[in-house]
């Protein structure tokens, strides 16, 4: 493959496992102007994101969609995404659809970077994870009020948080009976 053809690419979507991890890592190294990366249904996400930390300081948009992993692999992935948040200073949009972390440090980092990031969409698996994010967010963003909104249906003991800043939304877990309704723009903050 002639990798030189990729040098002007700014937006890249990688879907499924059609291309091998090694080829994709090589590809990412040859795209110096990469601004948007979307990974869909990849099970090698942490290896690919490591390339971002090493060589893509200009990344502006990161999207992860259904990057399912085992618990152990998810912990590794959360560390890598945390590194991307820390070391990609131009990052403005983070959207994670059905990609779950059980990492306190990830939610703390996301809260610290909130002022620099314009749009955030994350999926939390438990209310405690949402609480971690919101408590750290309040510590770092003192001039913004956030509300707790009870979810409908069987998951009414869970909470959705949203704030007046466009682009912040913490979504309910997908098993919730409210999940499908929520995705159909019932709330204006889901405005990507």
From TrEMBL:
<dbReference type="InterPro" id="IPR032675">
    <property type="entry name" value="LRR_dom_sf"/>
</dbReference>
<protein>
    <submittedName>
        <fullName>Uncharacterized protein</fullName>
    </submittedName>
</protein>
């Amino acid at each position: 493959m002639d990798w030189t053809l990729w040098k002007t690419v700014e937006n890249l979507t990688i879907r499924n496992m059609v291309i091998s991890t090694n080829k994709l890592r090589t590809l990412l190294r040859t795209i110096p102007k990469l601004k948007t990366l979307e990974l869909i249904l990849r099970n090698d996400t942490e290896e690919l994101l490591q390339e971002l930390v090493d060589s893509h300081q200009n990344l502006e948009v990161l999207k992860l969609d259904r990057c399912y992993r085992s618990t152990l692999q998810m912990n590794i992935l959360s560390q890598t995404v945390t590194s991307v948040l820390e070391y990609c200073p131009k990052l403005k949009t983070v959207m994670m659809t059905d990609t779950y972390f059980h990492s306190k440090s990830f939610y703390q980092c996301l809260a610290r970077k909130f002022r620099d990031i314009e749009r955030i969409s994350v999926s939390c698996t438990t209310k405690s994870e949402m609480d971690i994010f919101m408590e750290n967010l309040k510590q770092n963003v003192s001039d913004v009020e956030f509300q707790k909104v009870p979810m409908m249906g069987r998951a009414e003991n869970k909470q959705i948080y949203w704030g007046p800043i466009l682009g912040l939304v913490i979504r309910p877990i997908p098993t919730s009976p409210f999940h499908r309704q929520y995705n159909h723009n019932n709330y204006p903050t889901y405005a990507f």
